[in-house]
Design a protein that fits this description.
Distance between the termini: 28 Å
Structural class: alpha/beta
Low-confidence stretches: 1-10
Largest sheet: 7 strands, mixed
Strand order of the largest sheet: 1-19-21-22-18-14-17
Radius of gyration: 32 Å
Shape: elongated
Mean pLDDT: 90
Helix content: 10-25%
Amino acid sequence: MSTAAPRPAGHDQLWSVDEHLQDILATVRPLEPIELQLLDAQGCVLVEDVTVPVSLPPFDNSSMDGYAVRVADVAGASEEFPAVLEVVGDVAAGQADRLHVGPGQAVRIMTGAPLPPGAETVVPVEWTDGGLGEGPVTGMRARSQAPEGAAGTVQIHRPAEARAHVRAAGSDVKAGDRALEAGTVLGPPQIALLAAIGRGTVRVRPRPRVVVMSTGSELVQPDEQLATGQIYDSNSFALTAAARDAGAIAYRVGAVADDAETLRDTIEDQLVRADLMVTTGGVSVGAYDVVKEALSHAGDEDEPGSGVEFRKLAMQPGKPQGFGSIGPDHTPLLALPGNPVSSYVSFELFVRPAIRALMGLTDVHRPRTRATLVADKALTSPKGRRQFLRGSHTDGEVRPVGGAGSHLVAALAHADALIVVPEDVESVEPGSEVEVVLLG
């Protein structure tokens, strides 16, 4: 949770992108670790190394359906002169009673079953007559249909080297090995490994709970009828989805009308389930910028050290921004602009790193690369502003997608990168190398 309020700023100060992000990351602290069941821990970050308590596999076992035999008994075997061995029984995966393989004997063995004492190798069933005396077979009949297959004799048509088709104990991991390191994000393969070594719970930092709400009396829920002057609320859907993509448990709140008291009440109601609050809209300089009105002095008297500061950043899109902490637990709050592109770019630059920091990750940023600009004409950028343009990146090249307008939401669906134009650059010619933030 947050531990400090933002530092004061002059009313007209223009902050850089890096300064704003630095202040956010200095305010956000990783969530406290908890013990979770394996499936509940998916997407969470380990806080301690996990050591293997038992080797995998824990015993020598067969990688094939076939016959467990001694090497000497099948040496020189062929279809013309097969080795004929006495079948003394079956051994299946999970079977406790282990048969012994003596000279001239074989045990019918199933994939995953422990190698019986005395056996030195496994002959695949396809190398045998399956006990039928009619030449090579392609498989075994089900034991329920042919129990006699576990007795009698079997003809083996090929020799086998020692420990052929045998998975050695500890060939995957050995007892005492480090299975997973602290800082690992638990995905399906990691969950599988933890289960395989017998861990039912694991100590992790939980996924942050992020509450997203948009503001504006003009916003209407999708599927509802639009009236004059109304638009559909897309920001809250985009940011909720983006928060989930970043690793959070995200909750979307319906759009809040342009009323400061209503917004304050809604935020207070939502604090109980929030590790991070995100608002969109109402942070500029208009008469109806309700977030700024409602939160500029939130908590100053009742909660010392809390409050939300609103800034102007040297960036395009996304100049107006707000951040701070609210409520008794000093829950971090990031207030983003309302234009769709401004909102999404701001999320990628500021909210996503905050979510990743709450998770306890050390690398909180999207990957960046250099790419060659492919465009019909030079890209222009306002002096003194760091511009982020939507782009499509492939094979070391990046192409602009859509225009520079902060309301052009359609282009977002076709962009997988942000083209970064530095503050001191006003024009970028086609063929130039540019910095690219990779979004997917």
